[in-house]
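pls design
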């Protein structure tokens, strides 16, 4: 129990430090102390110092923080999808490339672009829709062949 708490707290500390470093790095380097002040004032409503540059506030809060949060959510989604593939197929080596799901999604995307398919009520989401549809069809075909054994 105590070791699990230690693992979780160490993981959380690593996550927070990686996020701070990612927010700090860029064409304009923002000091980590400034990032902590900015996030503290915006999220926890702490009083911000008058000496914090408004450019830093804009860079951190409007550009870098949303990107870092989105990158974390995308990474978590990919991890969940990989675990779902491995659990569904009961194979620790299963991934979208080995199973052909990514190739199936590519076929849908290329077909949409090549044949200039556009569904009016989907608009600009026609391409992702057909990509997801053909990826789903591909995994169904793979599962069908897995059931044959």
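designed seq:
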């Amino acid at each position: 129990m105590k070791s699990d708490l230690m693992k979780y707290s160490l993981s959380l500390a690593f996550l927070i430090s990686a996020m701070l470093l990612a927010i700090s790095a860029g064409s304009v380097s923002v000091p980590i102390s400034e990032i902590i002040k900015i996030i503290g004032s915006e999220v926890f409503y702490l009083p911000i110092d008058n000496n914090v540059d408004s450019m830093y506030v804009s860079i951190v809060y409007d550009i870098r923080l949303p990107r870092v949060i989105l990158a974390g959510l995308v990474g978590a989604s990919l991890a969940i999808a990989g675990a779902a593939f491995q659990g569904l197929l009961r194979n620790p080596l299963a991934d979208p490339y080995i199973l052909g799901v990514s190739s199936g999604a590519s076929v849908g995307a290329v077909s949409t672009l090549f044949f200039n398919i556009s569904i009016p009520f989907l608009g600009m989401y026609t391409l992702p829709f057909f990509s997801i549809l053909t990826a789903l069809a591909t995994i169904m075909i793979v599962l069908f062949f897995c059931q044959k054994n």
